Amino acid sequence: MITTPSTTPVATSWHDVVHRGLLLSACAERFAVELGAVRLPDPEKVDGIMRLPAASIAVPASTGLPFVVAEHLGARGGQLDEDDLAAELAAGWQADPCAAVDGAALVLAEVRGGRPWWETASALHGGQGSYGSGAAVRAIAVGLLPRTGIGAVAQLARRAAAVTHTHPLAQDGAAATAVAVALAAYGYPDRRLDASRFLDIVAGQVRGPELRSCLNIVRALVRHRAGPAEVVGTVGNTDTALRTVPAALAAYLRHPQEPDAALSFALQSAGGNRAIPMITAALVGARSPQLLTPRSWRTPADDNRARRAARALGAVAEPA
């Protein structure tokens, strides 16, 4: 499994951090698709799915948007252009005929048809904007941007989110995810992860009281070594940023040194919400880039896409 490292110490580069974070997130999405909407599956069922070859699991055509954001940032030296990003996301998005159409899908479909993103995104839900978890998933890539301070990461995540999600909760979820991924990638507060300090830093970039309150609940859940059922029963697992991000962070902080265990925890908690294991997987992948992702977990297409994104973002880390 993923927790088997090389027999000798491995020096890692930012390319490795980005590659592992994005690749493991893609692997997690495949497992979540296969698991479906099972509520609190037992660990044995999850373990069985994690042993399936990736090639045997078909994923919806609309997946892979974190790669789009990573490639966008890499091509622009870490800068973001909302108009271009909206067009690139729309080009990379494909409708899933088996899924309900969510807010982000509506925006991207309209963008593809020529309507400005800012006009559609702000009109959703009676003018409130989308509060789903899609922007938080895309923010994984923002957190993998090198040589960027925490405040700048949070602000960039909000801007990237706004092309489809203008609701404050979705923006907070994106900022929190990006900051958490950045902390995992840089090993802050230190390699012996202090969950309380970690959550303090994440909460420091959250503007609204709702998500901050949920992060405090996560703090208590981690302190009391809660299991998936307790996480679902307290912070929930619905496909909103407010529920998704805390559940993903809880899974990561319960097992920050054990990628297999963290991913299994997230899959048990997901209940059909693919964003939870995707964010958790990105966190553990970024924190432990020296560990090898099993070949059976990945497809050549996923691996190549992750390497391409890693090269793009890795180039941002190189001195000018």
TrEMBL record:
It comes from the Bacteria. It holds the Pfam family ADP_ribosyl_GH. This is ADP-ribosylglycohydrolase. SUPFAM superfamilies: ADP-ribosylglycohydrolase. Gene3D superfamilies: ADP-ribosylation/Crystallin J1. It comes from Catellatospora coxensis. Transmembrane segments: none annotated.
